[in-house]
Design brief:
The chain has about 170 residues and is mainly beta. The chain has a single domain, classed as Beta Barrel (OB fold (Dihydrolipoamide Acetyltransferase, E2P)), CATH 2.40.50. The strands form two sheets. It has a five-stranded mixed sheet. It has a five-stranded mixed sheet with strand order 3-6-7-5-4. The longest helix is centred in the N-terminal third of the chain and has 10 residues. The radius of gyration is 15 Å and the shape is globular. The two termini are about 20 Å apart.
Length: about 170
């Protein structure tokens, strides 16, 4: 799915104030967002399209060949030390993320669309989330019934867990 579809819907909304973020579900309780300038594409792919790679961190689901490009696919909730995606998943919701020349496919529970908010509403995550999560966050945005985690794509792509395993691209 091309992200321009999400952008069109967001632009039509009267709530189009602030910067655009791709919003997704990490697990049953946790929603997160990535800046749209880092999100290249959203895909739904069958699990059979991934190529398992031995001797990789458990959060690395495998490799995906998409349009003559090869991407590492990472279980984002597991990387963030949350409950991993179900092992019997038949298809993955992927967000292709790019920071500079680094590209990674992040598997998430569900993609929710585009949300917008002003940078001023982002609050410090310290004390509100587990300490292991804070290096991957720009902050959080309190919402009516939940907290939206604002992820730092550069921190995710430069994760120590993935650092030695990104030379495919």
């Amino acid at each position: 799915m091309n992200l321009s579809n999400f952008n069109l819907q967001a632009n039509r909304s009267q709530k189009s104030v602030g910067q655009a973020y791709l919003k997704f579900q990490l697990d049953s309780k946790t929603q997160a967002a990535l800046p749209m300038d880092a999100a290249q594409e959203v895909l739904i792919v069958p699990s059979s399209r991934l190529t398992f790679m031995p001797n990789m961190p458990s959060c690395v689901l495998g490799l995906l060949n998409q349009r003559s490009r090869v991407f590492w696919v990472v279980d984002l909730p597991q990387l963030l030390e949350m409950q991993s995606l179900p092992a019997d998943t038949q298809q993955y919701n992927l967000t292709i993320v790019r920071v500079g020349n680094a590209v990674l496919a992040l598997a998430v529970m569900n993609v929710k669309g585009v949300t917008r908010f002003l940078p001023e509403v982002i609050q410090s995550p310290i004390g509100a989330v587990v300490p292991g999560l804070t290096p991957y966050l720009r902050g959080l945005v309190p919402q009516e019934r939940e907290i939206l985690l604002v992820l730092d794509p550069e921190a995710i792509l430069n994760s120590a867990v993935l650092d030695t395993h990104q030379s495919v691209n």
